[in-house]
Specification:
The protein has helices at about 20-35, 40-60, 115-125, 125-135, 140-145, 155-170, 175-190, 210-220, 225-235, 255-280, 285-290, 310-340, 355-360, 375-385, 390-400, and strands at about 10, 60, 70, 75-85, 85-100, 195-200, 205, 235-240, 245-250, 295-300, 405-410, 415-420, 425-430. The protein is an alpha+beta fold and about 425 residues long. It has a 4-stranded mixed sheet. A hairpin with a 2-residue loop joins strand 4 (about 75-85) and strand 5 (about 85-100). Helix 2 (about 40-60) runs antiparallel to helix 10, helix 3 packs across helix 6 and helix 7 packs antiparallel against helix 8 (about 210-220). The longest helix has about 30 residues, at about 310-340. The protein is globular. It starts with 7 loop residues before the first strand and ends with a strand.
Length: about 425
């Protein structure tokens, strides 16, 4: 960067648990402390270090393979002022986040946890405050009990909560704002315990006999009226001819509607925190940032293969497949072609080819193959008035049955398909 005057970036990728996040943190820390401006160095380093506990608390979770897995992608830019071709001074940093795994807020597989912050808050707050929030036992909450894993070896939740609070103070998040954050987190947990019943018209209504206390506490912590929360849980708003129309929700869709609210609120809290971190790290106007030279560090979310993969995990795995394809094409294949041109003797490397999988997923009817890929078929079905998983399955199989990455199976009760990538199944999806 200093010699050429052009931005440089590095990609840290690999399977979940390979050490990507720790490697990225070490790279960033090294670049920060080797700043040529010693007077400015300490402040930048402290702020960059302080950002990590915040992002990890709200964006990392325990998975089957990794106790501290990043469930989002992060691109950190270290901003430099280049004085000449031998010297540059670090001025600050900025970050971009990608594809937060929102589904984890409402569902965790066996032996997995929700995002760390739920457990940090429950373990770190004083007993009186925890009792006020109704967080005595996280096994009492639907959103934190599904994985049946509250404690994680090597992670002291109460200690990590203290670290989180200190980091928030470094980022000038006031104690009042922190109180609101803990209220929001508690409200999400109580929202997950809201239950529904069917009325005489098959619509879903809140079952106040079983969960009234959770509705009251959720409304209280979010500073809204209980009646307004109940109304939002039982109806959805549609825009028709520039008018907003409230529509009652069928009983079978009630939990999905509740979970969508929880995911949306958590994502907005995460993005708000990222924005606060950026405001503290940037130290420059946005116009200046776009013109600065930088060193970028991309911490890619990890490849994982669960018994059943969510759409977010599918997108994460596909991103890793694309990166692997880029690496194969631009590093290994191009080098071997160079050897051939220069008549260099070498032992050829058998490079795994995942092009069939990539084409199957991202193909478009407007593309060269004129065939709808996974994303286009999925988008088409979601736009239907009544999305049909059977129709999705049939179209995928009929269009791509000759593709090497498509594997189909027909168990007695369910049918499923697998998309096979470079190291394992990129996705497993079931009909129904």
């Amino acid at each position: 960067m200093v010699n050429r005057g052009k931005p440089q970036s590095t990609i840290v990728c690999g399977e979940s648990g390979a050490g990507k996040s720790e490697t990225a943190k070490l790279i960033i820390k090294y670049l920060a402390i080797t700043s040529t401006d010693e007077d400015h160095q300490t402040g930048v380093e402290q702020q960059i270090i302080a950002a990590s506990p915040i992002l990890e608390a709200f964006g990392n979770a325990k998975t089957i393979w990794n106790n501290n897995s990043s469930r989002f992608g992060k691109f950190t830019k270290l901003l430099y002022e280049r004085e000449d071709n031998t010297k540059a001074t670090i001025l600050g940093s900025t970050l971009e986040t990608y594809l937060l795994e929102k589904s984890r807020v409402v569902f965790q597989a066996s032996k997995e946890r929700n995002y760390h912050v739920f457990y940090f808050v429950a373990a770190g707050l004083p007993d009186e405050r925890r009792k006020e929030l109704g967080l005595e036992d996280l096994m009492d909450f639907h959103y934190t009990s599904q994985g049946k894993c509250i404690q994680v070896p090597g992670i002291t939740d109460s200690g990590r909560f203290d670290e989180l609070r200190n980091s928030l103070r470094v980022m000038r998040v006031t104690d009042e704002d922190q109180t609101e954050l803990w209220n929001l987190i508690a409200g999400i947990l109580h929202l997950g315990n809201v239950e529904f019943k069917k009325d005489d018209q098959d619509f879903g209504v809140v079952n106040t006999a079983k969960c009234d206390i959770h509705v009251e506490l959720c409304a209280k912590f979010w500073n809204i009226k209980k009646a307004d929360l109940v109304k939002r849980l039982q109806t959805r708003t549609m825009k028709v001819m520039r008018k907003q129309i409230a529509k009652q929700i069928n009983r079978k869709e009630s939990e999905h509607n509740r979970d969508a609210i929880a995911k949306g609120i958590f994502e907005n809290a995460f993005l708000w925190l990222c924005n606060r971190v950026n405001n503290e790290l940037k130290h420059a106007d946005i116009d200046d940032v776009l013109q600065m030279t930088f060193i970028g560090v991309l911490d890619v979310f990890g490849f994982e293969n669960f018994k059943e993969n969510s759409l977010e995990q599918f997108c994460i795995n596909f991103t890793n497949e694309k990166l692997q394809s880029y690496f194969n094409e631009n590093i290994i294949k191009s080098e071997q072609e160079e050897y051939i041109r220069e008549s260099v003797f070498w032992t050829p490397i058998d490079v795994p080819d995942n092009e069939d999988l990539i084409v199957l997923i991202e193909s478009s009817t407007k593309g060269p193959l004129k065939k709808p890929g996974f994303y286009e078929v999925l988008d088409s079905q979601c736009r239907n008035a009544q999305p049909d998983t059977e129709a999705f399955y049939q179209e995928m199989v009929s269009v791509w049955k000759k593709n090497k990455s498509m594997k189909t199976a027909r168990p007695p009760k369910k049918k499923k398909y697998r998309l096979r990538g470079r190291s394992s199944e990129t996705a497993k999806a079931h009909r129904g």
